[in-house]
Amino acid sequence: MNRRQTRLSADTIAVSRGGRTIFEQVSFTLGAGEMLAVTGANGSGKSTLLRAVASLLPLAAGTIRFEDPAREDAPIAESVHYFGHLDGLKPSLSVRDNLALWAKFAGRAGLPAIEALEQVELDHLDDLPAGYLSAGQKRRASLARLLVVQRPIWLLDEPTSALDSRSEAIFGGLLAEHLAEGGLALAATHRPLPVESHATLALGAA
Ligand SMILES: Nc1ncnc2c1ncn2[C@@H]1O[C@H](COP(=O)(O)OP(=O)(O)OP(=O)(O)O)[C@@H](O)[C@H]1O
Fold first, then answer.
1. Is 189 near ligand 1, meaning CB less than 6 Å away?
2. Nearest CA to ligand 1 atom 4
3. Cα separations (Å) of 205 from 6, 67, 93, 173, 181?
4. Which pLDDT tens digit goes with each residue over 21-67?
5. How do the residues of the chain divide into helix, strand and coil, expressed in percent and rounded to 5?
6. Which residues form the ABC transporter domain (predicted)?
7. In whole angstroms, what is the distance from residue 17 CA to residue 57 CA?
8. How far from 113 is each of 40, 67, 83, 99, CA to CA, in Å?
9. What is the pTM of this model?
């Protein structure tokens, strides 16, 4: 997939919640294959920034643009995967059916469900109701969702929480592959991320 000309940019953006300005004057640019780690203290607005990029929250000021020659008119919301704190799995559906449902809902098919589960080493549990998975397994099943639907921008909110060291390495491999294919990523994190290099945006810094 050639995504060399894709570019995500935020220009002097601000977001308010409940009448309070959470952050303002935030700008960044990300090109194909690049990742930005968003750091800052609790409450500094990391999740808020990711949600604003996903178009889940309105901007109080500034603009966010995503240029993608492959999808000129597509709204940015259709170009992102939002990997948030919640796993978004339906507990009574099997792990495999959860992924199949997500692929059907979100479109732009990526890997078949079973192959995505192999990537996160969960294929042996594919017919188990998702509600029975452990916290780390749920996180891995949620990671597999990034693979069954192709989206150029991964928005990752504390992506390594609940992952053991092996799962963290698997996640690092998937993220490296996504970036190598020209994908982009924005990750809110308190912990070092398992990727070779990335830029950092510190929120709440004077
Ligand atoms: N719906 C809301 N209404 C008003 N304020 C909110 C709302 N949701 C979040 N906030 C506030 O927005 C601020 C930023 O929250 P956010 O979750 O983005 O922080 P964060 O940097 O991701 O924090 P953490 O490191 O704890 O995950 C916090 O002060 C929070 O209380």
1. no
2. 18
3. 29, 28, 43, 31, 32
4. 999 999 999 999 999 999 999 999 999 999 999 999 999 999 999 99
5. 35, 30, 40
6. 8-206
7. 9
8. 35, 29, 17, 6
9. 0.91
Atom of ligand 1 nearest to the CA of 203: 21
pLDDT at 5 over 90: no
Q: Residue 47 C-alpha to ligand 1 middle, in angstroms?
A: 7
Gap between the Cα atoms of 49 and 53, Å rounded = 6
Spacing, Cα 45 to ligand 1 middle (Å):
6
Size of the chain in residues: 206
Q: What are the structure tokens assigned to 12, written together? A: 């002097």
- Find the 25 Cα to ligand 1 centroid distance in Å: 17
What is the overall mean pLDDT for the chain?
A: 90
What integer pLDDT is reported at residue 102 of this predicted model?
A: 86
Contact 52, 11 (CB under 8 A): no
Q: Whose CA is nearest to atom 29 of ligand 1?
A: 43
Atom number in ligand 1 closest to CA 85: 27
